[in-house]
Amino acid sequence: MALKSTIFKVDLQVADLDRGHFADYALTIARHPSEFLDRQIVDVN
Questions:
Q1: Would you say 24 and 11 are in contact if contact means Cβ atoms under 8 Å apart?
Q2: Which strand (E) or helix (H) includes residue 40?
Q3: What is the pLDDT of residues 26-36, one digit of tens each?
Q4: Domain boundaries, the chain
Q5: In the predicted model, is pLDDT for residue 42 greater than 80?
Q6: Are 40 and 34 in contact (CB under 8 A)?
Q7: CA distance linking residue 26 with residue 29, whole number of Å
């Protein structure tokens, strides 16, 4: 049986004073078992 993806829920708060952008984002990210954590961090960036 194949391994399933791991689902992560992320709450991201952005505060950019220079641009006047303030926002909250609720993200759902899936990581396949063959992916490394470094790759997942790049997906969020």
A1: yes
A2: helix 37-44
A3: 999 888 888 87
A4: 6-44
A5: no
A6: no
A7: 10
Q: Quote the tokens at residue 20.
A: 């006047």
pLDDT at 24: 98
Would you state the structure tokens that stand for residue 13, as one six-digit string? 């708060």
In terms of Cα–Cα distance, which of 17, 6, 14, 5 is closest to 45? 14
For the chain, where are the E strands, in sequence order?
A: 6-16, 21-31
pTM of the model as a whole: 0.60
Residue type, 14: V
| Cα–Cα distance, 26 to 36 (Å, whole number) | 22
